[in-house]
Amino acid sequence: MNVENCKATRPSQPLSPQNVRDLFASVDAFLFDCDGVIWKGNTLIDGVPQTLEMLRSKGKKLVFVTNNSTKSRRQYAEKFHSLGIPVCEDEIFSSSFAAAMYLKLIDFPRDKKVYVIGEEGLLEELERAGYTGLGGPDDGKKMVQLKPNSLFEHDMSVGAVVVGLDQYINYYKLHMVITCRYGTLCIRENPGCLFIATNQDAVGHMTDLQEWPGAGCMVAAICGSTQKEPIVVGKPSTFMMDFLLQKFQIDTSKMCMVGDRLDTDILFGQNAGCTTLLVLSGVTNLSTLQDPSNNIQPDYHTNKVSDILKLLE
Amino acid sequence: MNVENCKATRPSQPLSPQNVRDLFASVDAFLFDCDGVIWKGNTLIDGVPQTLEMLRSKGKKLVFVTNNSTKSRRQYAEKFHSLGIPVCEDEIFSSSFAAAMYLKLIDFPRDKKVYVIGEEGLLEELERAGYTGLGGPDDGKKMVQLKPNSLFEHDMSVGAVVVGLDQYINYYKLHMVITCRYGTLCIRENPGCLFIATNQDAVGHMTDLQEWPGAGCMVAAICGSTQKEPIVVGKPSTFMMDFLLQKFQIDTSKMCMVGDRLDTDILFGQNAGCTTLLVLSGVTNLSTLQDPSNNIQPDYHTNKVSDILKLLE
């Protein structure tokens, strides 16, 4: 018999002076997404530092879980410091770090190389985990000419391709990861080549004024040509949660995931068994949340992170 | 009551000295795909000129239907001539031409512009149809920097985006077509902006030695960020068939579509009611054709176009 879960999804509750107290009392760690939650581009969202400071002063653990793979943990810690927020590397779980941890976990051989569609931070995390990354910004200016009889040379020792947000994406890189009849670097023709995606976010707020194509754009390009699906290490996959639990040893039912995106942040929180809070300061607005076609309902929603502080006062 | 079509698909028959005569007798026009059928890169596939010459001499119409949008009809005619095959522009139906014809058909206003992810041939067809194309190779070297407070300027008069194979694809172009909060050039935020794909081929044989990322790669990148589906004017859409019928006035049951790709060529032929012949000189091999997971069966298959000539002798 086919038993379906027919429980209706409970609509999200607006955060209120009443329920914020229950939330606060039941949670030992707050997990924050960054883009659209903490900042937009290099601009902090109003009231964030005071709210984080209050949470820390009340003994809450703070963790930052971001799908943006362009920076390493070290670079994120620097960014937090430059914005006047004291955060240490251990509190940051970025999808760049997750990609490196995934390779470590599966004992990916250190004598094989990793081709990267992505930026500096992703290469740095791979290097810190002991791997050799190729591609990245270095291949951003390379061109490939479709001349007759032209054969594309590949590094034979590449055993994995990692795809994240890359503002230097080009045809050269797409070709590198997609197809080569003679090398091992080849998702399409070599089933042994790993295809890892840091995340699949459609768009991001890489600057404070506009949306920009996200890693989902690059990943879709690869899927479109290889017709293979990647291993996704970023949200909504709970892969990062295992590392987070090792570090903090707090039951996920005592965590609250705070994010601006339903299909990554809120789904990640729900998949891991956390309480979830959607903030409307990023890519999701109230009408999207309440649209009948949306079937991802967080426990709570509010305009921005600092509402926690305001409502607790 | 839900009535499903349960007719089992008849497995493809290898072309033989017997059935090739039936095929030849029943068909007034042969429709040929080009890449992987007529040529690979700039190299003709063995026996093609003699076969085409024989078909013409027996009064068969020859038509060339290609999803490769990098060339215009004029440029394809030139390529045929340079390879020693007399083909005129009217016999060529390329997806670059189809994209321009689509805009004409819907009376797309001539004072609006068309942003192009694609190459020279696509721009040329748009221009010949009276439209102004932007982007293309000209934007291939442009870069976009994700700086805080940076705002991307868009041409406000763009009303359609056409996406085809583009070896100069970059983040600048992806951003141009995906998102702009302030302009009309915006598939993502402006429902009025048309999103047209020349085709969705995953890979192509742009050179004779390797497979290369196809237009499907670029189209998927846009879909991945916009989460919208394009209007596809190339095969397997039968959009081009209407123009072909206007020109040749032959019933589709009297046509045979010859191609190397199941999900474009053969499906196109079947959708239009043609007889279909798969040649194994391109992207599809016999084991793919006969794999139980493949549900697209042509009427016939053979190694290459010149088998028609050989088997008729």
TrEMBL record, chains A, B:
Catalytic activity reported: 2-phosphoglycolate + H2O = glycolate + phosphate
Active-site residues from the entry: D33, D35
InterPro entries the record matches: HAD-like_sf (IPR036412), HAD-SF_hydro_IIA (IPR006357), HAD_sf (IPR023214), PGP_euk (IPR006349)
Keywords: Acetylation, Chloroplast, Hydrolase, Magnesium, Metal-binding, Phosphoprotein, Photorespiration, Plastid, Transit peptide
Name of the top EC class for this enzyme: hydrolase
Main location: plastid
Residues that bind substrate: K235
GO annotation, cellular component aspect: chloroplast
EC number per UniProt: 3.1.3.18
Binding site for Mg(2+): D33, D35, D260
Cofactor(s) it depends on: Mg(2+)
Free-text remark on how the cofactor is bound: Divalent metal ions. Mg(2+) is the most effective.
Family: Belongs to the HAD-like hydrolase superfamily. CbbY/CbbZ/Gph/YieH family.
Record-given protein name: Phosphoglycolate phosphatase
